[in-house]
């Protein structure tokens, strides 16, 4: 501790504007990301944090001259804008101090209940206070004044806890008096902060506080209470964080948490529970009621309580603004319904507090597993600011690599460590993904194909093996500082079934989760469950994947012998399995055919899956027969409609009789492929390698004939079925090639 001496939109628009400007910056995250002690996670690994603490490359800091610190604190004291539904404003924790075991602590029950008791009595936020702290880097003109904000409680979509600390760092050059960088804290050390380089020295810093969680973003442009991720229409962007190119569809998205509810995203809040009941029912919280929490129009009892993602959640609206008591702010008065004046108090007056305590509150994630879903708990605790590395070395909280590089260029005191930004992809020990939505495709046959679309509702990602939780922003999930090794991630969303996958993170490279960065979730009302493998299975499974006929590969994960995946009941899938010997097997999964659609409660089970030619040939027979049956139904329907009994050409499989005869010819070609594939499967089971290859050659010939017949029959088929037949035969061709090289 330093002794006091006198000496922080539409994603497609984002992509278009930045790509048009040629803005491509490599994504990454430094090892020092793990050192960032977020408000939601303790900084000391011994106290529950599993993040790695990197050795600082920054110069030591010393205490700032008292008069200079007070002057800078008064000059840069931010104006804070809060959501109209906010309950927990920045306050002074000292009224809730108790002595426990000879130590001074702030108890969670005391603070939570006491805050609401006083709020109800006064009709106004009690003790509005912002705390400040400052340091200067030794032998450098670079100094930092920090503004620390304490709230009595934190309620978020999958995260709630007693106490909450957020911070704004203002980096200032003492020689010029110019601010160099603003860094506003987001949820935790795993989530990129909201940062702005070279802010206007004549504009008061503004913070937009996220409802419930109090994550802070910046407002530096002409709209005081609105967040702009990317500049446009004459407005300056509110962040200058680097962009990302790790996932193709995310090219150009500045990596910072931002303010999702101000960017058009829906964000449901979960009612916090303690000992199985809502916290407001606890007898030790008599002043806390249901109305004390985030408004019920924004909350759900649990993420799995809804059958579909919520679409009617209100977006952000500004309510109260906080301004420094000794400085007028007409802009705040013109913008907010109510303006509250806060006191500035130095953090040294709090440093005798050794802990912010309270019983642990956990959030339970649903985790798909074979037989039945499991539950994983995420527990969040709050550290003491003056025991965190960033209290003495604020540069460790700079998450954007472009900002750290700029500071390092300007000041020798700042070490040039990689971060999320220029040249940093090689040092990114984290995960990147985009959470999307799986929906029925208009281009597929009814109930037999998907499209993947953007999600309008945010989700949460749990890295179970670390463990840490990160919320998405604009559907993007970034988890920094993930240690090297095997991990399992689970994604939960309101009204959606869970997704889980296993992957490996390597030091020195970015890890993209999902399939090419996409993790499509399924609405609960549309979902069915696929269970793959059992302990008694012949193949020792190491990996599974699912491909939809139209959306392509939507799931791919390492497994430990078995797997369970929620899929959209209106999709038609190829399930791929791989064993320890890298042999491949495939199985057809079509909920519409197997009468296992949404709401049936019947999972689709692939028991004792096999790999090799037997499985692959059997798959080709199944997908060809499924398609043949649909083509036959289309031909019968067309014949009934037209009364066409002319079969003069269908006997030879020709198409001279028009589209209906061509469709019949297509059906016969498919039937021939089924027959050849079944023969190949039989030869494989007999161990007849020459016979297998001979029959696989026949299958390939039949598929070529199908493609010819499809070209002639296309006008006689429903458009969706024609496209499905083409896609399925491409899938069958792949599997024939795998069967040629696989074992029997």
What is the compact description of this entry?
By secondary structure, the protein is of the alpha+beta class. The chain is elongated, with a radius of gyration of 30 Å. Residues 663-742 form a coiled coil.
How would you portray this structure in words?
With 744 residues, the protein is of the alpha+beta class. It contains 11 helices and 36 strands. Strands 1, 2, 5, 6, 7, 8, 9, 10, 11, 16 and 17 form an 11-stranded mixed beta sheet that branches. Strands 21, 22, 25, 28 and 29 form a 5-stranded mixed beta sheet that branches. It has a 4-stranded antiparallel beta sheet with strand order 24-23-26-27, with no helix packed on it. α9 (659-686) packs antiparallel against α10. The longest helix is centred in the last third of the chain and has 30 residues, at 613-642. InterPro entries: TAT_signal. Residues 32-59, 631-662 are annotated as: Disordered.
| Fraction of residues in H or I helices | 10-25%
Global outline: elongated
As a percent range, the share of strand residues is 25-35%
Summarize the biggest pleated sheet. 11 strands, mixed
**Structural class, from secondary structure content?**
alpha+beta
Radius of gyration over alpha carbons?
A: 30 Å
Give the rounded overall mean pLDDT.
84
Q: Distance N terminus to C terminus?
A: 68 Å
Count helical runs: 11
Unreliable runs, pLDDT <50, ≥5 residues? 1-54, 421-427, 641-655
| Quaternary form | single chain
Q: Topology of this protein?
A:
Layout: H1 11-20, E1 61-63, H2 66-76, E2 79-83, E3 97-100, E4 103-107, H3 108-122, E5 129-137, E6 142-155, E7 160-173, E8 179-184, E9 194-197, E10 206-209, E11 216-219, E12 269-270, E13 273-274, E14 277-278, E15 299-300, E16 318-324, H4 330-335, E17 338-346, E18 353-357, E19 362-367, E20 374-379, H5 389-392, H6 401-410, E21 431-440, E22 450-454, E23 459-463, E24 468-471, E25 476-479, E26 485-493, E27 499-505, E28 511-512, E29 518-521, E30 527-532, E31 541-548, E32 552-558, E33 563-568, E34 573-579, E35 584-589, H7 591-594, E36 604-606, H8 613-642, H9 659-686, H10 689-713, H11 719-741
Parallel strand pairs: 2-10, 4-18, 5-17, 12-15, 16-17, 21-28, 21-29, 30-36
Antiparallel strand pairs: 1-5, 2-16, 3-4, 5-6, 6-7, 7-8, 8-9, 10-11, 13-14, 19-20, 21-22, 21-25, 23-24, 23-26, 26-27, 30-33, 31-32, 31-34, 34-35
């Amino acid at each position: 501790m330093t002794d006091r001496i006198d000496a922080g939109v539409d994603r497609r628009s984002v992509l278009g504007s930045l790509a048009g400007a040629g803005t491509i910056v490599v994504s990454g995250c430094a090892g020092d990301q793990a050192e960032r002690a977020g408000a939601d996670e303790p900084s000391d690994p011994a106290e529950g944090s599993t993040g790695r603490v990197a050795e600082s490359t920054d110069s030591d800091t010393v205490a700032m001259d008292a008069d200079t610190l007070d002057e800078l604190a008064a000059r840069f004291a931010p104006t804070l804008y809060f959501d109209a539904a906010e309950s927990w404003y920045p306050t002074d924790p000292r009224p809730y101090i108790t002595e426990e075991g000879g130590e001074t602590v702030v108890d969670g029950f005391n603070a939570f209940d006491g805050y609401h008791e006083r709020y109800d009595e006064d009709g106004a936020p009690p003790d509005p206070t912002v705390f400040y702290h400052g340091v200067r880097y030794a032998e450098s003109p670079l100094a930092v004044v920090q503004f620390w904000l304490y709230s009595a409680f934190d309620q978020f979509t999958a995260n709630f806890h007693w106490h909450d600390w957020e911070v704004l760092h203002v980096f200032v050059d003492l020689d010029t008096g110019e601010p160099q960088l603003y860094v506003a804290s987001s949820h935790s050390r795993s989530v990129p902060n909201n940062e702005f380089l070279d802010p206007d020295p004549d504009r008061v810093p503004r913070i937009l506080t996220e409802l419930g969680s109090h994550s802070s973003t910046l407002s530096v442009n002409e709209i005081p209470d609105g967040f702009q991720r990317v500049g446009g229409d004459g407005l300056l962007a509110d962040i200058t964080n680097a962009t990302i190119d790790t996932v193709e569809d995310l090219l150009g998205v500045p990596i910072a948490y931002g303010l999702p509810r101000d960017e058009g995203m829906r964000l449901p809040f979960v009612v916090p529970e303690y000992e199985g009941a809502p916290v407001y029912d606890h007898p030790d919280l008599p002043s806390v009621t249901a109305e004390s929490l985030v408004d019920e129009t924004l909350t759900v009892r649990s993420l799995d309580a809804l059958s579909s993602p919520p679409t009617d959640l209100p977006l952000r609206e500004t309510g109260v603004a906080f301004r420094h008591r000794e400085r007028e702010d007409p802009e705040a008065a013109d913008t907010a319904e109510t303006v509250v004046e806060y006191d500035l108090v130095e953090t040294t007056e709090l440093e005798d507090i050794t802990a912010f305590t309270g019983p642990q509150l956990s959030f339970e994630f649903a985790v798909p597993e074979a037989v039945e879903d499991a539950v994983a708990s995420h527990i969040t605790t709050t550290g003491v600011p003056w025991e965190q590395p960033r209290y003495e070395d604020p540069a460790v909280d700079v998450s954007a690599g472009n900002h750290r590089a700029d500071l390092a260029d300007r000041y020798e005191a700042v070490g040039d460590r990689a971060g999320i930004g220029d040249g940093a992809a090689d040092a990114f020990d984290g995960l990147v993904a985009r959470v999307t939505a799986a929906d029925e495709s208009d281009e597929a046959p009814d109930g037999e194909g998907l499209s993947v679309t953007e999600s309008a509702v945010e989700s949460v990602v749990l890295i179970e093996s670390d463990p840490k939780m990160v919320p998405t922003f604009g559907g993007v999930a970034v988890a920094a500082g993930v240690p090297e090794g095997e991990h399992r991630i689970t994604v939960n969303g309101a009204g959606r079934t869970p997704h889980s996958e296993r992957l490996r993170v390597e030091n020195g490279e970015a890890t993209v989760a999902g399939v090419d960065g996409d993790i499509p979730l399924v609405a609960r009302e549309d979902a069915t469950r696929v269970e793959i493998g059992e302990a008694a299975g012949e193949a020792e499974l190491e990996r599974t994947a699912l491909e939809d006929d139209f959306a392509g590969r939507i799931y791919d994960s390492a497994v430990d012998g078995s797997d369970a995946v929620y899929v959209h009941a209106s999709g038609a899938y190829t399930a791929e399995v791989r064993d320890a010997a890298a042999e491949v097997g495939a199985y057809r999964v079509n909920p519409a055919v197997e009468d296992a659609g949404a709401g049936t409660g019947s999972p689709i089970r692939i028991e004792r899956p096999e790999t090799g030619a037997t499985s692959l040939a059997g798959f080709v027979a199944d997908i060809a027969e499924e398609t043949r049956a649909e083509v036959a139904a289309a031909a019968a329907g067309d014949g009934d409609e037209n009364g066409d009994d002319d079969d003069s050409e269908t006997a030879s499989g020709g198409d001279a009789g028009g589209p209906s005869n061509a469709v019949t010819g297509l059906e016969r070609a498919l039937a021939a492929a089924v027959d050849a594939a079944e023969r190949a499967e039989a030869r494989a089971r007999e161990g007849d390698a020459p016979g297998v290859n001979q029959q696989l050659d026949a299958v390939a010939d039949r598929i070529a004939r199908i493609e010819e017949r499809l070209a002639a029959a296309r006008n006689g088929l429903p458009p969706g079925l024609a496209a499905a037949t083409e896609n399925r035969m491409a899938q069958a061709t792949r599997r024939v090639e795998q069967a040629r090289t696989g074992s029997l």
